[in-house]
């Protein structure tokens, strides 16, 4: 399928789900987790930063590392891919953005209906009492003295309450799912495009690397960078409208 045929699907779709991963923010200068030379899980040992036990053991380094990432994502700007996704939301009758990203760039680009599966770096919270906290110098909860952590989902932890159920419902009722910039390796998020496929939706994968992506008769691959493909898709879909 060509970008023109995908644009026609998008123009006709009544219910669209956009599903994103770190690749959508790569062109804003946010490193991905696995796909670049400076990918985060190559830079640091995942066990000492992204598992609750390792995070507790690796203090204060792990706290500082997340604090630096939180500062970095505030400094960078949304890119053309984030903006195109916000534009799709304004055009489509029923829309949901399901993101694995924790960088807040979708919201800053104007996306409104955003379901965050893995939390967000906007704030920290306490391991013990769950109180939210700003990014202070030391990881000590003001309310109870417990250990602070980023408000993101670590490995072995549950996703936010109801998040997968909402994503599933939207995936099972959409006409078209666009999966953008995710390696599609982390469960349970990997289920989202599968739910859509099983319910008969069209699924379009936008990524420079198609390994580990869903396959099937209704899957289309648009190979390349999100910041190039998505604005082009939106331009073609909504030309003359
Ligand atoms: P990954 O780092 O695993 O994958 C990034 C994907 O983006 C890869 O498939 C790249 O090919 C693709 N990519 C790179 N540059 C791109 C570009 N300019 N345009 C489009 N695609 C591009 O990131 P995620 O799939 O988001 O979890 O990883 C999933 C989860 O693993 C994350 O949410 C995080 C991580 O551990 C938690 O923090 C819980």
- Catalogue the ligands: 2'-O-acetyl adenosine-5-diphosphoribose
Number of strands: 9
CATH class of the largest domain: Alpha Beta
What count of helical segments does DSSP give? 10
Q: H/E element string?
A: HEHHHHHEHEEEEHEHEEH
What's the CATH architecture name of the largest domain?
3-Layer(aba) Sandwich
Form type: elongated
Distance between the termini: 23 Å
Label this structure with key terms.
binds 2'-O-acetyl adenosine-5-diphosphoribose, elongated, 19% strand, alpha/beta, 241 residues, SIR2/SIRT2 'Small Domain', Rossmann fold, 3-stranded antiparallel beta sheet, 6-stranded parallel beta sheet
Verbal overview:
By secondary structure, this protein is of the alpha/beta class. It has two domains: 1-30 and 78-118 and 160-241, Rossmann fold, CATH 3.40.50.1220; 31-75 and 123-152, SIR2/SIRT2 'Small Domain' (2-Layer Sandwich), CATH 3.30.1600.10. Helix content is 36%, strand content 19%. Helix 8 packs parallel to helix 9 (191-198). It is elongated and about 55 Å long. It starts with a helix and ends with a helix. The model has no long low-confidence stretch (mean pLDDT 96). The structure holds 2'-O-acetyl adenosine-5-diphosphoribose (OAD). 2'-O-acetyl adenosine-5-diphosphoribose binds at residues 21-23, 26-27, 32-35, 39, 100, 118, 152-153, 181-183, 185-186, 207-209, 225-227.
């Amino acid at each position: 399928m060509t970008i023109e045929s995908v644009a026609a699907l998008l123009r006709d779709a009544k219910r669209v789900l956009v599903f994103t991963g770190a690749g959508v923010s790569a062109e804003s200068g946010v490193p991905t987790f696995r796909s670049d030379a400076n990918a985060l899980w190559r830079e640091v040992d995942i066990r000492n930063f992204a598992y609750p036990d390792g995070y507790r053991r690796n203090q204060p380094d792990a706290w500082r590392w997340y604090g630096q990432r939180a500062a970095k994502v505030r400094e960078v700007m949304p890119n053309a891919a984030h903006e195109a996704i916000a534009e799709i939301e304004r055009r489509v009758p029923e829309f949901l953005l399901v993101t694995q990203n924790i960088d807040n760039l979708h919201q800053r680009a104007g996306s409104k209906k955003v379901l965050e599966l893995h939390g967000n770096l906007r704030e920290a919270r306490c391991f013990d009492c769950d109180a939210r906290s700003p990014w202070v110098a030391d990881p000590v909860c003001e309310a109870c003295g417990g250990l602070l952590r980023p408000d993101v989902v670590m490995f072995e932890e549950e996703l936010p309450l109801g998040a997968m159920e909402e994503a599933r419902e939207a995936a099972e009722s959409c006409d078209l799912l666009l999966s953008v910039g995710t390696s599609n390796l982390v469960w349970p998020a990997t289920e989202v495009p599968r739910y859509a496929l099983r319910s008969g939706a069209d699924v379009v994968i936008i990524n420079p690397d198609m390994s580990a992506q869903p396959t099937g008769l209704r899957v289309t691959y648009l190979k390349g960078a999100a910041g190039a493909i998505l604005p082009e898709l939106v331009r073609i879909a909504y030309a003359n409208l």
